[in-house]
From TrEMBL:
This is UPF0056 inner membrane protein. Belongs to the UPF0056 (MarC) family. It comes from Gloeobacter violaceus (strain ATCC 29082 / PCC 7421). Its main location: membrane. It is found in: Cell inner membrane; Cell membrane. Pfam families: MarC (PF01914). Keywords: Cell membrane, Membrane, Transmembrane, Transmembrane helix. The lineage of its organism: Bacteria, Bacillati, Cyanobacteriota, Cyanophyceae, Gloeobacterales.
Length: 208
């Protein structure tokens, strides 16, 4: 039997390494700054903080009770992927079509609201892939040291995400207004592609 601290450290390291590529904190940076480009610095800082908090409690919650909740409501990962794809698609469509509105009113309307939970935390960062990872870790946990270690790993991933979102601000200032508008539309198209892939993967699983 391993010492308790080894179980905690092993679970923390395993969770961190498993979640980091799935959550992709670096990949979230350009999307975050596109969605918040017309907001103030304090608005972006608040959204970065809230996004991190939402990711933290979502992943921790799914680690502890996620499998039970999904089974209780009869929700499959395939349906979760399709629902997440629809949510992402709405955001991507608004970003692609923001140039059709007078000035930046459409984008301003989008970025003056709360984007921390949807679409940033759910489903872009803590999407079906990340949820699947933590539920898988939960099923392998043999005691509270494993759960505690996984919670530490989730907290470390959330910390990396927060640093990435906060340190990405210089990029937005270098791009300027015109560059940010162009980036919005390019990323909007990519987000639409991600959304479609989510839905296709979900449909493929449902039809198996």
């Amino acid at each position: 039997m391993r010492p308790m601290w080894e179980s905690v450290l092993g679970s923390a390291a395993g969770t961190f390494l498993a979640l980091l590529p799935v959550t992709d904190p670096l990949g979230a940076v350009p999307i975050f700054y596109s969605l918040t480009s017309s907001g103030s610095d304090s608005y972006r800082r608040r959204q970065a903080r809230l996004t991190t908090i939402h990711v933290l409690w979502l992943l921790a919650g799914f680690l502890l009770v996620g499998k039970v909740v999904l089974e209780f409501f009869g929700i499959s990962f395939a349906v979760l992927r399709i629902a997440g794809g629809l949510l992402i698609a709405q955001t991507g469509w608004e970003m692609v079509n923001s140039h059709r509105h007078e000035g930046d009113t459409a984008l301003a309307a989008n970025t003056s609201g709360d984007i921390a939970f949807a679409p940033m935390a759910m489903p872009l960062v803590s999407g079906p892939g990340a949820i699947g990872v933590v539920i898988g870790l939960s099923s392998k946990a043999s005691g509270w040291p494993d759960y505690f270690g996984s919670l530490v790993g989730i907290a470390l991933v959330a910390g990396v995400l927060y640093l990435c979102l906060m340190l990405g601000e210089p990029l937005l200032k270098r791009l300027g207004r015109a560059g940010t508008r162009a980036l919005n539309q390019i990323l909007g198209f990519l987000i639409l592609a991600i959304a479609l892939q989510f839905m296709v993967d979900g449909l493929r699983e449902l039809l198996r």
